[in-house]
Structures are given as C-alpha cells and as structure tokens.
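Worked example 3 (structure in, sequence out).
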C-alpha cells in the first residue's frame, strides 16, 4: 500500500467534510516550504502558523497569493512583524492584544482582520475571552475607537479529550454565543461571519456544530516535526 502524500491527504480530508463550504486552513507550523508548496499545488491557499518568525520567513519565500493565518498565542511586541500582510489573526485572546493590533494597523494603514478567541475548554492552559467580557466589550465604547481592526468572528479550541460529547458540547456552546452576538446591534468593525473551530482530531464534530473554518495540521502534513 502506497504511503499517503500531502496531496492524497488533502483530497481525503476535503471528501470527508460534512460542510463542503467550510474552509481548510492547513496548519503548516514546523513544516518546510517544500511541504507547503505541495499543499499549495493541491489547491490549498490558507495556511496557519503559530510562531511569528516562522510565519514571516515563509511568507517571504512562498507564493504571494497565500492567505497566512496566525493561529498561535500572539505576543503584543510581535504584532508589528505580521501587521502588513497577515490575512487573519485567529488568536486574539485579550483586549490589550486587540488594541496593539489596531495600533500596528494604523502604522501600516491597514484594517487587520481578527477573530476573538473564546475560552471554551475546561483546561486552564487555553487562552481567551469569557462570554461576559466579550459581550461587554462589543457593547462598549472602546471598540468604536478601533478603526484598524475588523472582527470577523470567533475562534475556540475544545478540551483535549477522547470524550466526543464534551467536545461537541463546547463547540455547540461557542456556536450559540456566535449566533447570539450576530443577532445584536454590533459596531461597524464587527462582521461575525467566521467561526473557527475544529482541528485534525475533531474537525468533523466542529463542522456538524457550525464551524466555517477548520485548522488541520497533522492530518494534512503527517506528524509534526518538533525542533
């Protein structure tokens, strides 16, 4: 039996999608440019990275029509390096970070698309807003001053567990919050069109619960290379 390639992996993943309209973000962290190019040649245009330095190096080396997604925990002092070109920042986990993104967007005269990361998992290691502070922020005055960000929706990471009902429940809760926020009278800077949830192990459940964007790494590229 032939060893699966990146191309055959992508084909198998997209065929297994519950929602064909859901976007595949291929998580290329630690992967060489050659692997990303193979996925690109197979039709993928959205790639996710979790380290700023790796993201900027790859963006310089690879085709310019790639959409680069920042999916990892982002430090405020690193925002300036990706502000000119990043397609979407998934991991906006605090107001302080959002303010910094807005500031760097002003400097490069660009509106930067963002997702607000909501803490839905029971693990303390996950970052993110809680429902109360998120609703207060979107209803408040501070966001109205931020002209260089566009909030496209929400992102969440489920608990790392074999318990699929727990995962489903967390995704369902995030989708309910997403719909609740969409029904509000939101500021112009908020679009609420994207719901980024689901990774290699749980993307089918995430799609069944309403994900518009899944972040898949090992199922595309094989197991991760740790430096």
């Amino acid at each position: 039996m032939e060893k699966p390639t990146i191309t055959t992996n992508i084909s198998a993943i997209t065929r297994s999608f519950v929602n064909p309209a859901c976007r595949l973000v291929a998580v290329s962290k630690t992967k060489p440019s050659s692997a990303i190019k193979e996925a690109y040649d197979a039709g993928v245009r959205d790639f996710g990275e979790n380290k700023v330095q790796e993201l900027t190096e790859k963006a310089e080396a690879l085709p310019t029509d790639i959409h680069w997604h920042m999916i990892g925990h982002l430090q405020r002092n690193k925002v300036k390096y990706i502000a000119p070109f990043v397609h979407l920042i998934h991991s906006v986990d605090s107001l302080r970070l959002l303010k910094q993104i807005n500031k760097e967007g002003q400097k490069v005269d660009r509106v930067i698309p963002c997702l607000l990361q909501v803490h839905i998992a029971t693990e303390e290691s996950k970052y993110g807003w809680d429902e109360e502070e998120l609703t207060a922020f979107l209803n408040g005055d501070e966001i109205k001053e931020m002209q260089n960000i566009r909030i496209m929706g929400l992102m969440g990471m489920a608990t790392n567990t074999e318990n699929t009902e727990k995962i489903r429940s967390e995704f369902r809760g995030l989708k309910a919050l997403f719909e609740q926020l969409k029904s509000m009278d939101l500021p112009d800077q908020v679009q609420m069109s994207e719901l980024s949830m689901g990774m290699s192990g749980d993307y089918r459940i995430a799609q069944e619960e309403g994900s518009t964007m899944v972040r898949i790494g090992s199922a595309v590229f094989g197991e991760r290379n740790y430096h």
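Notes: The mean pLDDT is 93. The longest strand covers residues 149-156.
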